[in-house]
Specification:
This protein has 220 residues and is α/β, with parallel strands linked by helices. The protein has one domain (2-217): Rossmann fold (3-Layer(aba) Sandwich). Helices cover 45% and strands 13% of the residues. The strands form 2 sheets. A 4-stranded parallel β-sheet has the order 2-1-3-6, with helices on both faces. A two-stranded antiparallel sheet has the order 4-5. The radius of gyration is 17 Å and the shape is globular.
Length: 220
């Protein structure tokens, strides 16, 4: 089985850095990819389930972009004969993205002067944010259901409206909040890196609990 993952930095694996790498730039990112993807929750879950993975997350991703990235995978990259499960860690509803040649996310340009008075900047601040998230969830869940693709999903960050979709882990909470609660109960765990993303330990702690849910309800 292959796990195909979508999400933001919490699924991309931001701040997961191979301690053996001490150089900078593009070469660092290329060499760090395997370490990052192996230690983020998606890679850890795949290894626990004896599966492979395809991590399609992007830092600062929006739910709007996740919907399109899922559609691109389904229409252009999916192998219908391959056994897959879709894994989505939904992100904060206030995030927005637009697609030119590549994706641009409002979280990465919020301080960029050229966007301060643009139409795109207006969209990111005045849109009904719940609409984009609700539409994205409806689209992804409907396509998976129609094609008998198992789906595992949870909220990585941000407060979301209540959902009635299947395969929802810790519905009503988020990965971030669950880890913060565990951190408050035992500050020796060090579940977060310095920039606020889950650390290797944080991803391990969360995945250990996610695996049981996946086995019982989604994948096996």
């Amino acid at each position: 089985m292959k796990l195909v993952g979508f999400g933001c930095s919490f699924t991309y694996g931001s701040e997961l850095v191979n301690p053996e790498l001490n150089f900078q730039g593009a070469e660092f990112h290329r060499r760090n990819t395997r370490y990052r993807e192996s230690n983020v929750w998606l890679g850890q879950l795949a290894k626990r389930l004896n599966a492979t993975w395809d991590n399609r997350a992007e830092p600062a991703n929006s739910n709007y972009a996740i919907q399109y990235q899922f559609a691109d995978w389904f229409n252009n990259n999916r192998n219908p004969s391959e056994r897959v499960a879709v894994c989505v860690a939904w992100t904060d509803i206030t995030r927005f993205s637009w697609l030119d040649d590549t994706w641009t996310h409002n979280g990465t340009v919020r301080n960029d002067e050229k966007f301060l008075h643009s139409r795109k900047d207006w969209i990111t601040s005045d849109v009904d944010h719940n609409y984009w998230t609700d539409a994205a969830k409806l689209f992804v869940n409907s396509v998976c259901k129609l094609n008998n693709i198992p789906i595992l999903q949870f909220n990585a960050i941000g407060v979301h409206s209540t959902t009635n979709y299947s395969g929802y882990f810790v519905d009503g909470s988020t990965m971030e909040d669950v880890l913060k609660q565990a951190q408050s109960e035992d500050d020796r765990k060090q579940l977060f890196a310095s920039g606020g993303h889950p650390s290797e330990v944080g991803h391990f702690w969360f995945t250990k609990r996610l695996t049981l849910f996946a086995k019982e309800h989604i994948l096996l």
